[in-house]
Write a structure and sequence with these properties.
The chain is α/β, with parallel strands linked by helices and 595 residues long. The chain has 16 helices and 21 strands. Among the domains are: 128 residues, Sandwich (Immunoglobulin-like), CATH 2.60.40; 84 residues, Oligo-1,6-glucosidase, domain 2, CATH 3.90.400.10. The protein is 26% helix and 15% strand.
Length: 595
């Protein structure tokens, strides 16, 4: 029905009358569209264009692959560069745009590539420099970025630098490593290796000890020597010249140690401990970690990397810093005004979160811990698994894998996915007497989370055509890429849908984040701000029971439309207070439009 006022306005001569009628028709159409948005089963996806100042690593998913375990091309049971190249389309299928590859450089493989004997060459088990060049070329042609692992703290004891250094005390390379006299036939001090035992190895050739904060075959470089610093910068330049897109920097906090080599204090007694009396975990590492001067070294590397950045070809740097003090981790963003170190330090809070704290409240508090501690302008990031920790599906159960992937891909910032987690791969059983990991302490080993990628249900999961993969293959008959592609609600298909949603919905980009509610089961947060055409609410149930009336906690938006659910059976469903339940282990991304 048309009101009297509208009738009066319509009694106007042409052409004004035409424009008035047109205006009311447009208003009516817009109103109907808004109503349809909230009631229709069709999900609105807003294609967004990143801000002109947005860097590529802020709008991508990073995928970590362990090269020994990703794809074997020649049947020797070990993954290689040609194998990775053969699977580049898989990353496009996942909507992943950046690949971080664990070390592929020449190495005796005592620590599977983290003991490097030549920083500027490829180990033959992975291929050749030509193979790498081909991989990089093909990746770039497909729009994929390649990130390499830079291991600067130590070399292999087979590196030519160290072999020169240990020849005699007067060798020009002697000061490239940390050497010291023993005390009364014992090591120079009580420092302990991260991998167990003394951090000092006696060398009978020169009757001194050398420092190794990891394996004894991994001697620490001396970064107080300018020649060492120049040599390591030349390594970065070598790979930057080839066109790599960035680096993950290994073990940053160990780069320097106390110049006076003072013994460390006991955490229990706060006094100096006798040599070898305690384990690494029982010492206060004030003289071997985060020593003054490390930040200057990291800034030097960042300057080198930045010098190769230009419009359309920005280079990236992420740091590995495990530390109990979150402010120490945050310091590796760099100076507050400049952010002149890592583009971000890896965030391991979710990796380290104990099983009992994987609740709505526990996850909410963990997210808040990182975001609250972040300096202004810092870009957040999230990790739930890597090559040094048990797989998330083994920790929380395969049934919760899709839920964790939804958490990872909807939090603000950049997510990094460990290969196979997008399938729900679990740790493989490796008998301790058959373990390949030489870091093994007691019955601990990192082999279970490094098992071969599960491509299909053929022999050895399609990883190798040879007789024996380097590690056993896991539950590949039911968990593999081929099977997962065909299952509507597989972890893989949930992951792909999340990746696509993240790249297309402006609210899931940037770092906007508003926590809404958390309890022992449910965790709810909002993404999007006033600049976004729509806002998104993510609701996750970490509990073991069905939860009803979840939407009662979202007081500002009584209606919405499910954009994606981990069960893949509710997409497009209308949500209201009367219709907002979550199954155990279920998560939903809900479009709420304007508020």
């Amino acid at each position: 029905m048309i009101s009297v006022a509208m009738k009066d306005q319509l009694q106007v001569p042409s052409p004004r009358r035409f424009y008035v009628i047109l205006r009311y028709m447009l208003v009516a159409l817009i109103s109907l569209s808004v109503i349809g948005l909230l009631s229709s089963a069709v999900v609105l996806i807003v294609i967004s264009k990143p801000c002109p100042n947005t860097k590529w690593w802020q709008n991508t998913l990073i995928y970590q692959l362990y090269p020994r375990s990703f794809k074997d091309s020649n049947g020797d049971g070990i993954g290689d560069l040609v194998g990775i190249k053969s699977k580049l389309d898989y990353f496009k299928y996942l909507h992943v745009d950046a690949i971080w590859i664990n070390p592929i450089f020449s190495s005796p493989m005592r620590d599977f590539g983290y003991d490097i004997s030549d920083y500027k060459n490829i180990d033959p088990i992975f291929g050749t420099l030509t193979d790498f060049d081909d991989l990089l070329k093909d990746a770039h042609e497909k729009g994929l970025k390649i990130i390499l692992d830079f291991v600067p703290n130590h070399t292999s004891d087979k590196h030519p630098w160290f072999m020169e250094s240990r020849k005699n005390r007067y060798n020009p390379k002697r000061d490239w490593y940390v050497w010291a006299d023993g005390i009364n036939g014992e090591p120079p001090n009580n420092w302990q290796s991260v991998f167990g035992g003394s951090a000092w190895q006696y060398d009978n050739i020169t009757d001194q000890y050398y420092l190794h904060q990891f394996l004894s075959q991994q001697p620490d470089l001396n970064y107080r020597n300018e020649d060492v610093r120049d040599a390591m910068k030349s390594v970065l330049v070598f790979w930057l010249e080839k066109g790599v897109d960035g680096f993950r920097i290994d073990a940053i906090k160990f780069l320097l140690e106390d110049v006076h080599l003072r013994s460390e204090m006991c955490l229990i007694h706060e006094q100096e401990c006798p040599c070898h009396s305690l384990s690494y975990e029982q010492l206060n590492h004030t003289y071997t970690e985060n020593i003054a001067g490390i930040h200057d070294i990291v800034k030097e590397w960042k300057k080198v990397i930045n010098s190769y950045s230009n419009q359309g070809s920005l280079r990236f740097m992420v740091g590995e810093i495990y530390d109990d003090d979150i402010s120490t981790i945050m310091s590796y963003y760099g100076s507050p005004n400049d952010m002149d170190e890592c583009d971000f330090p890896f965030n391991f809070l979710l990796v380290d979160l104990p099983l009992k704290e994987w609740t709505g409240t526990g996850v909410n508090d963990t997210v808040a811990k990182w975001l609250d501690a972040s300096p202004n302008g810092a870009w957040p990031n999230w990790v739930v698994g890597n090559h040094d920790n048990p797989r998330i599906a083994s920790k929380l159960g395969i049934q919760n894998s899709a839920l964790v992937m939804m958490l990872l891909l909807t939090l603000p910032g950049t997510p990094t996915t460990y290969y196979g987690d997008e399938l729900g791969m679990t740790d493989v059983f490796v008998p301790f007497n058959a373990t390949k990991d030489q870091m093994s302490i007691g019955n601990a080993t990192r082999d279970p989370e490094r098992s071969p990628m599960q491509w299909d249900n053929s022999l050895h999961a399609g990883f190798t055509s040879g007789c024996c993969p380097w590690l056993p293959v896991g539950n590949f008959t039911t968990v593999n890429v081929h099977v997962a592609k065909a299952e509507r609600d597989s972890v893989l298909n949930v992951y792909r849908s999340l990746a696509l949603l993240r790249s297309n919905v402006s609210a899931l980009q940037g770092i906007s984040y508003t926590p809404i509610y958390a309890d022992t089961s449910v965790y709810i947060f909002q993404r999007g701000d006033n600049s976004d055409i729509l806002k998104v609410v993510v609701a996750l149930n970490f509990g073991n029971e069905f939860v009803t009336e979840v939407w009662q906690h979202v007081t500002f938006a009584p209606h919405g439309v499910v954009m994606l659910s981990t069960r893949m059976d509710r997409n497009g469903q209308n949500i209201s207070r009367a219709n907002s339940e979550l199954h155990a282990g279920e998560g939903v991304v809900v479009q709420i439009g304007h508020t």
